[in-house]
Amino acid sequence: MRSKKDGKLHAWTAKVGTKGQIVIPKEAREIFSIEPGDNLLILGDERRGLAIMNGDVATKVLMSIQGDLEDEN
Q1: FRET label pair with 55: which of 29, 33, 41, 73, CA 20 to 30 Å apart?
Q2: How many CB atoms lie within 10 A of CB 57?
Q3: What are phi and psi of 57, to 5 degrees?
Q4: Could you tell me the pTM of the whole model?
Q5: Taking a C-beta distance cutoff of 8 angstroms, is the pair 28, 34 a contact?
Q6: Cα separation of 49 and 43, whole Å?
Q7: H/E element holding 24?
């Protein structure tokens, strides 16, 4: 994942708890401005794996796509 701050690629590990929960590492939360109570969008591809996006960012992206599609009609 590349952050907007420095464009560097970052990687972390997270352990899955008994309830299926993971803890996002502190450095990742800081870089991507993830705060307690934020909604995250989790995308899954059975071949490529999972991707996690900030829910607010995902909403803006999806609204932009929807607007582009409406403009085409």
Answers
A1: 73
A2: 13
A3: -65, -45
A4: 0.65
A5: yes
A6: 8
A7: none
52 in Cβ contact with 41 (< 8 Å): yes
pLDDT (tens place) for every residue of the chain, 73 residues total: 444 556 788 999 999 999 999 999 999 999 988 999 998 988 899 999 998 888 887 788 788 887 766 666 5
Contact (Cβ atoms closer than 8 angstroms) between residue 59 and residue 39: no
Tokens for 51, please give them.
């991707």
Collapsing DSSP states into helix, strand and coil, what is residue 15? Answer: coil
Residue 34's CB is within 10 A of a number of other CB atoms, namely 16
Strand partners, 9: 2
- The C-alpha atoms of residue 23 and residue 21 are separated, in whole angstroms, by 7
Q: What are phi and psi of 7, to 5 degrees?
A: 75, 5
Cα gap 56→60, rounded to integer Å: 6
**Continuous H helices in the chain:** 26-31, 55-72
